[in-house]
Write a structure and sequence with these properties.
This protein is mainly β and about 130 residues long. About 0% of the residues lie in helices and about 45% in strands. Strands 2, 4, 5, 6, 9, 10 and 11 form a seven-stranded mixed β-sheet that branches. About 30% of the residues are buried.
């Protein structure tokens, strides 16, 4: 059974950093587009970043410059490094896999950041940014 498992969330002070991990089980992450989404309290889930099988990436404007997505194929893991965190970064962070499109080119606009593009989702990890 294909699964994604997120970890690395927790409580962090404003200005701090976190690295989230997304591990694939029964799912080779280096074959697919993998994305990170965030759902803040009372808000819709938003796409933050994605990485393709050829390591092209895309970032939402809201996190560009503060967030880096990367992959370690030897560990079947995709990471999201987040820096300069603010209370607005509080939420549940999900990773997701697009096992359908096999797209590996450049991401234009917000391609790769829409929920409907992904068919496998993890359970999420909580991030709280607070003094």
């Amino acid at each position: 059974q294909s699964q994604l498992v997120e970890s690395g969330g927790g409580l962090v002070q404003p200005g701090g950093s976190l690295r989230l991990s997304c591990v694939g089980s029964g799912l080779p992450l280096d074959r697919y587009i993998i994305a990170w989404f965030r759902q803040a309290p009372g808000k819709e889930r938003e796409g933050l970043s994605c990485i393709s099988s050829s390591d092209t990436t895309n970032y939402a404007d809201s996190v560009k410059g503060r967030v880096t997505i990367s992959r370690d194929s030897t560990k079947n893991t995709v990471y999201l490094q987040m820096n300069s965190l603010t209370p607005d970064d509080t939420g549940i962070y999900y990773c997701a896999a697009d096992t359908v499109s096999y797209y590996s080119g450049t991401f234009y606009g917000r391609r790769g950041l829409y929920q409907h593009e992904y068919d496998i989702w993890g359970q999420g990890t909580h991030v709280t940014v607070s003094p």
